[in-house]
User: What shape does this take?
Amino acid sequence: AQSVTQLDSHVSVSEGTPVLLRCNYSSSYSPSLFWYVQHPNKGLQLLLKYTSAATLVKGINGFEAEFKKSETSFHLTKPSAHMSDAAEYFCVVSGEGSQGNLIFGKGTKLSVKP
Amino acid sequence: GAGVSQTPSNKVTEKGKYVELRCDPISGHTALYWYRQSLGQGPEFLIYFQGTGAADDSGLPNDRFFAVRPEGSVSTLKIQRTERGDSAVYLCASSPYPGRRSSGANVLTFGAGSRLTVL
Assistant: This one.
């Protein structure tokens, strides 16, 4: 069965410093992986997706993630945090059964200090 | 419409009452999804429609939950005999077509959600 583990429930960084949000996945086949962001009182927004093409995936707002099969990881990074990056981030893997069944991690809350 | 629209944005009800939550997907999107997000948790899959039919309802927790999409556009999630444990944000999403898992076509656009509170 597919699963994702987000290793940190809360990450706090200073504005202008790098961001690292960690995600490990478990899948019985080559997975599709996503990162979504959720700002307060707003819908989930897709940041980036991996679908077995390039292992380094670039997303919106300067975020990127690297698929590492040997480590079963898909960590999200950004070189320099901005105050507007403060939000909840979810690592997501496609479920094995239905193509509509996405499996979400529990989320990582990113705080950005001025 | 321009995005996925969900109504109501907030619903407070009493234990045992019946509730309907509505989702209006992006125009032309054939696939529609319902998820539930409890406090402090990631969204959990409930049901997925391809057109008018439920392609996968394996996430519905019990027979108090039911969803319809009679004309292949708007969907309604129905909850009977609500319980306090049903309190959560109910998220709807749509996509142009489900596609093959490897094609990357399965990118969902989410609505802002309906927050249900059962007293």
In short: The first strand of chain B starts at residue 5 and ends at 7.
